[in-house]
Please model this.
Amino acid sequence: MLKSQTKLTSQGQVSVPASVRHFLHLIPGSVLEWTQEGDRIVVQRATRHSTLDAHQALFSEGTPSDAAPPKTLAELKQGIRQHVRHRHAGD
Model:
């Protein structure tokens, strides 16, 4: 288990310890995500797309049911491409 400590500056900043930077593969400009889980705050490397984004791209018609035929790999990839294009069309 990785455990490190840092001090909070008067500006509200912290330094990310080298061991944590290496573990999370952080480089300058990496974005960290802070999430509350009960009485704890979890810090992790932010991802560009969440699992919810992927699920919505793959199953845009709703939650898959047992009656729905499984999608092919090509259909899954096409669904992701369409979702990403639509999501970033205004960029």
User: Anything to note?
Assistant: The chain is about 35% helix and 15% strand. The mean pLDDT is 82. The CA atoms of residues 56 and 62 lie 8 Å apart. Helices lie at 18-24, 51-58, 73-87.
